[in-house]
Specification:
heterodimer, A: about 475 residues, alpha/beta, 8-stranded parallel beta barrel, 3-stranded antiparallel β-sheet, 14 helices, 15 strands, about 35% helix, globular, B: about 375 residues, 11 helices
């Protein structure tokens, strides 16, 4: 990667934003390494959050689980599982961090707005304006089996519910006027008369009537994140979100195409096209030399895709239990079994297994790969591999050309996985002028350079961040 | 003196038990809903040597104007406090009248992990019809139906806490298995109004089961670790305590104490100009620290602990920590929780065996 003239680019002054995603489930977190720590000990969460804060990251993210993953009706036992409730864990982290944003993945299908909006407000106040909400949806009855509502939400309804959920949540967050609470114990009342508004909402999904119990934080509303990649998801993000997670951060052209698509959708709904931050999830593997980084990547992939994991992934693709096969041998000779439902929940679904298997066979034959090597080589190509200096140049190119606004880093190791990124990569980024040297402000919204919450845009507003 | 120590809990929601407590608070009203305030009150209670703090909650405002109408959720406050304290027990009030028991179970199990085994749960109910409208759920109208929701909610939470055996995470590098799925269990709960499949997403809490506190007339004794009993006088508290089958009984006691600046009666009279301190049929002590020490000494013959509800936290908590707890401690009537000790251990409650592990073991024995 050659260095571009910093000023001869569309966004010469763009800054890269980092978040860290504490993964919680899946095989990308290497639990088998000797220095891999506990996935549930509060010390692990604290260490990752504090390391990220030392590295001036914008945000610390937690995922959500509502049911343990299964394959063919049996609990999946190969990967990391078992994690805390996100908002509860983040409220604890609010006490031991000062500037980093705290973002909860919370489902709009299996929560209710009065409850979730209140919990997020509480986190926002306890962190003094550092809360975020990654809005996710579910439509399957399998997850519903753990909830009062049970059952099933039509696929089409999940975003409708999410959107109405957000409408109600925002009304609750806006239910208190700023300065509603008295600043003196001698005041006639604790809150100014009329400053707290009853929220009445009647819609297809929700029928809610209550007086909200919390004021807004310093950032106005929790920052809204969205992660769906479908057209529907992207439109939802364009209408509602402040930040979009994407899977488009690996290849420059792909990332730029995604960003252009998002900008188009933003303009279509009347928002400025720089109104959303685009943070693809990524893994970052660093080495002192290119060669060392590639060797490290190879080692990491072997830890992530163990023989059993390779057979599990292939089994999902083939629709056959392959657990007794040899992962280091050739690909299974059978044709994949195509069923309506692949029998896995919470694991990935494969749209056209026959086509994928055909591609796997062709590549494996051409390169002489074993099944495990094929799974590694043709699985999702995640992340960036290189030297701190090389990657800093690459990221500068990405961000200055508007392909991304930053990355949501998924460390492959807990709790030390961020150390080299913070210690080695961040200084290189700072040297190139694409990374902050101190936090912009006390709130997550300010650090991400976001404008005021969407419902606050029309009125002249002191929260306008520009 | 001999005998087991009395456990002291203190309720620290808002500015105190009196609706107008905020008028005598040491901070301005707009400081109530701040992290600094939340951490400060917990730190005072911990330093004073209380066994447990409880944090009241509900979806509706805590009171009506002109008194406070704001409150941060108890689980969020509890988690925040857990990270800024080290020995005190922490029990949020969580009603399950409308909430999702699966979420409640996860939140509380997480609190136990975060606090390294210092978490409890005060089971409560959303009694007002407005709560149903807030949640957007059908009204759970009568007391029996609410008790059913409490019973089912506690049953689900407790079953989910057991749905991971303690050693379910095996990290077996040799077999590539992170979990032993034989040590994970579906709970397959089916109640009158809903069903829950399980297992939990949170590994078993450090205490195995959190300490569950609740009213014995609302939650079956078999589901409680600590029954919270009420009575206007010592005799009725003693009667209520004797009737309770839960392992521990705590009495609810409202306190207003003499301070160097004003007597308890004066302080109360000041607040009563603004709003009445509603009589909820609880023992109420209005007077000196010494008298309270004596009362607690008497109560110790009938109950295992007392939950104090101070009139004004900023005033009464100071007297409790300067005069009451030291006096009790000197006479060995109370014991300060020790660092590194779970709430269960502090209370002298055993760590429960896992129901599923126990069942598996029994099956194995039968097979022999």
């Amino acid at each position: 990667m050659t260095r571009t003239d910093p000023l001869d680019v569309p966004r010469p002054h763009a800054r890269l934003h980092f978040g860290v995603f504490f993964q919680g489930v899946n095989h990308w977190t290497i639990w088998s390494a000797p220095d891999s720590g506990s996935q549930i000990d509060p010390a692990s969460f604290r260490q990752v959050a504090q390391t990220a804060e030392r590295g001036l990251f914008d945000a610390f993210f937690l995922g959500e689980g509502l049911r343990l993953r299964e394959v063919d009706g049996r609990i999946h036992d190969l990967d990391v599982a078992g994690r805390p409730d996100a908002i509860t864990q983040l409220a604890a982290l609010a006490a031991v961090t000062r500037r980093i944003g705290l973002v909860s993945t919370s489902n709009s299908t299996f929560n209710e707005p009065a409850d979730l909006a209140r919990r997020l407000s509480g986190l926002d106040l306890l962190s003094e304006g550092r809360a975020g909400w990654n809005v996710v949806t579910t439509d399957n009855a399998w997850t519903g089996a753990n909830f009062r509502r049970g059952g099933y939400l039509d696929h089409a309804d999940r975003y409708r519910r999410a959107e109405e959920f957000l409408t109600v949540a925002r009304a609750l967050w806006d239910g208190w006027e700023d300065g509603a609470v008295a600043d003196s114990a001698g005041a006639p009342a604790w809150s100014a008369p009329g400053a707290v508004h009853q929220v009445r909402h009647q819609g297809p999904q929700f029928d809610v009537d209550l007086a909200p119990t919390l004021p807004r934080s310093a950032q106005g509303h929790p920052v809204i994140f969205q992660a769906g990649d479908s057209g529907e998801g992207r439109d939802f993000a364009a209408r509602n979100a402040d930040v979009i997670f994407s899977a488009h951060g690996n290849d420059f052209d792909d990332a730029l195409a995604f960003a252009d698509d998002i900008r188009r959708r933003l303009r279509a709904v009347g928002r400025p096209d720089d109104d959303l931050r685009i943070l693809p999830g990524t893994e970052i593997i660093l080495g002192a030399t290119e060669e060392e980084a590639q060797e490290k990547k190879h080692w990491i992939r072997l830890q992530q895709v163990t023989p059993a994991t390779a057979l599990g992934i292939a089994g999902l693709l083939w629709g056959i239990d392959l657990s007794d096969r040899d992962a280091d041998g050739p690909l299974p000779e059978e044709d994949p079994v195509v069923t309506e439902n692949d029998g896995s929940f919470g694991a990935r679904r494969i749209a056209d297994p026959r086509a994928v298997v055909a591609e796997w066979r062709a590549k494996a034959q051409a390169y002489g790969w074993s099944l495990r090597e094929t799974v590694i080589a043709l699985g999702p190509q995640r992340g960036h591999v290189g030297t701190p200096s090389g990657l800093a140049d690459k990221f500068a190119h990405f961000v200055r050309h508007g392909a991304i606004d930053g990355f949501n880093v998924t460390p492959y190791l807990i709790p030390d996985g961020l150390d080299d990124i913070v210690d080695l990569l961040v200084p290189e980024l700072q040297e190139r002028g694409i990374y902050r040297t101190e936090y912009t402000g006390p709130t997550l919204r300010e650090n991400l350079g976001l404008r005021a919450p969407l419902t606050h845009r029309s009125a002249p507003d002191r929260r306008q961040a520009g | 003196m001999s005998g087991p120590a009395l456990h002291l809990a203190v309720e620290i929601d808002g500015d105190g038990a009196h609706p107008a407590a905020w008028r005598r608070a040491a901070h301005s009203p707009d400081q109530l809903l701040t992290p600094r305030r939340v951490a400060q009150v917990a730190a005072i209670a911990e330093n004073a040597g209380f066994t447990l703090i409880t944090l009241d909650d509900g979806v509706l405002p805590p009171g009506a104007s002109p008194d406070p109408v704001g409150r941060i959720g108890a689980v969020e406050r509890a988690a925040f406090v857990a990270a800024s304290t080290s020995t005190i027990g922490i029990a949020p009030v969580v009603p399950v009248t409308y909430a999702e028991p699966f979420h409640v179970s996860s939140q509380l199990a997480s609190l136990d992990h975060i606090s390294a085994g210092r978490a409890g749960w005060v089971v409560a109910e959303e009694e007002r019809p407005e709560a149903a409208r807030a949640w957007g759920r059908p009204l759970v109208a009568d007391a029996d139906a609410r008790a059913r929701e409490s019973r089912d909610g506690v049953e689900v939470a407790r079953a989910l806490w057991d749905s991971w055996e303690d050693d379910a995470v095996i990290r077996s590098v040799a077999t590539s298995r992170y979990l032993d799925r034989e040590r994970l269990h579906y709970i397959d709960f089916t109640g009158d109004t809903y069903a829950v499949k399980g297992p939990a997403i949170v590994p078993r809490p450090p205490q195995g089961q959190l300490v569950v506190l609740g009213r014995p007339d609302r939650v079956p004794a078999a589901q409680l670790d600590v029954a919270l009993v009420e009575g206007r006088d010592l005799a009725s508290v003693a009667t209520a305590a004797a009737r309770t089958a839960a392992p521990h009984v705590f009495a609810e006691v409202e306190v207003a104490l003499d301070t160097p600046e004003a007597t308890a009666a004066e302080r109360l009279a000041d607040l009563e100009q603004h709003a009445p301190w509603t009589d909820r049929g609880r023992l109420r002590h209005i007077g000196s620290a010494d008298q309270l020490v004596a009362l607690l000494g008497d109560l110790r013959r009938h109950v295992d602990g007392v939950r104090l509800r101070p009139l004004v936290l900023d005033e009464d908590l100071a007297v409790l920590s300067r005069l009451v707890l030291p006096a009790l401690s000197e006479r060995r009537l109370v014991a300060r929780p020790l660092p590194g000790t779970s709430l269960r251990s502090t209370l002298g409650l055993e760590r429960p065996a896992n129901r599923f592990a126990a069942a598996a073991l029994a099956t194995q024995e039968d097979a022999r």
